[in-house]
Specification:
Layout: H1 10-18, H2 22-32, E1 40-45, E2 48-54, E3 59-64, H3 71-85, E4 90-95, H4 96-101, H5 103-118
Parallel strand pairs: 3-4
Antiparallel strand pairs: 1-2, 2-3
Length: 125
């Protein structure tokens, strides 16, 4: 099933791909880009741009920066997550400090969620 997307924000998504934060690049280049299950970065879904998206696992990974800790950011994230979940997607929120302090743990968390979503017993990242 194809997800709905707003064509008008595709140029913004392309721009965000070029200007990824250093920790987004770290997660992308050091784990997700070569992952056995394909990921896309800055994927347009509905009226949102997901940081990372895996179609096979129907999984969205959001990197939460400091703006997400403010009340407006937290409210936006909640609404955004609810909308994505209506499409059968699961959303993982990962904070910048988590990536800085425990990159391997973050990668393991993602891998476990993929296994759970895909129900693969023999999956080996």
């Amino acid at each position: 099933m194809s997800l709905p997307y707003n064509k008008s924000i595709i140029p913004k998504a392309k721009e965000l791909r070029k200007k990824m934060l250093s920790l987004e690049k770290h997660l992308w280049y050091d784990h997700l880009s070569a992952h056995p299950v394909r990921f896309q970065r800055k994927k347009v879904i509905n009226n949102y741009i997901a940081d990372f998206y895996c179609h096979k696992a129907r999984l969205v990974i959001e990197i939460d920066g400091f703006q997400h800790y403010m009340e407006e950011g937290h409210e936006y994230d909640s609404i955004h997550t609810e909308i994505l979940e209506t499409y059968g997607l699961d959303v993982i929120h990962i904070t910048i400090p988590e990536i800085e302090r425990d990159f391997k743990g973050v990668c393991n968390r993602i891998d476990l969620k993929i296994m759970e979503r895909m129900q693969l017993e023999s999956f080996e990242p």
